[in-house]
Amino acid sequence: QMQLVESGGGVVQPGGSLRLSCAASGFNFGIFAMHWVRQAPGKGLEWVAVISYDGDNKYYADSVKGRFTISRVNSINTLYLQMDSLRPEDTAVYYCARPVESFDWLLPFDSWGQGTLVTVSS
Amino acid sequence: EIVLTQSPGTLSLSPGERVTLSCRASQSVISSNLAWYQQKPGQAPRLLIYGASNRATAIPDRFSGSVSGTDFTLTISRLEPEDFAVYYCQQYDNSPPRYTFGQGTKLEIK
What we know:
The complex is a heterodimer. Chain A contains no helices and eleven strands. Chain A has strands at about 5, 10, 20-25, 35-40, 45-50, 60, 70-75, 80-85, 90-100, 110, 115-120. In chain A, the strands form two sheets. In chain A, strands 2, 4, 5, 6, 9, 10 and 11 form a seven-stranded mixed sheet that branches. The chains are: A mainly beta, B mainly beta.
């Protein structure tokens, strides 16, 4: 049974950093692109970043470009999101998500983790 | 940048009723790049429809999607108690990759 489990959320001060992890199991992680999507409290969904299956291609939402870095280590089935220069508006539940099919990233997301809450506050 | 506008913001209906949710794109969207998700409180979103009209795995056939120009529609033919949730549309395009969500429609029990 496939599973995505996020970790690493917490409370951080504005300007601080945090690294989120997403541990994947139950499927061939190394052939799927992976995404991060966030949801501010009581708000809608916002796509954050995508990384290709081999890690060679990475794309970001304008709101996080230059501050967040997506990465992956396929040998340990783990996706990461390094978040620097955090702002209060980055406060959200962060989900990792997998596309419906392997290799391509221009696809909807059919598998999601349970999310990890990041709170940016002084 | 494509903007997706969902309407209405909130719908109050009863189990057994038929409902149509709307998602309008600000410009032309490739219909194969449009999806619908359902999200219940405290849960991650669940993919319902992709390619505008294809049901995802294990989604009941009371859920259907359609498109007319830049207007996308999610229809639930007969509401079940478990269908009361928030629904989001999403479009995705390339050059560079972008994944845009609508603001959501909340379906609540009347």
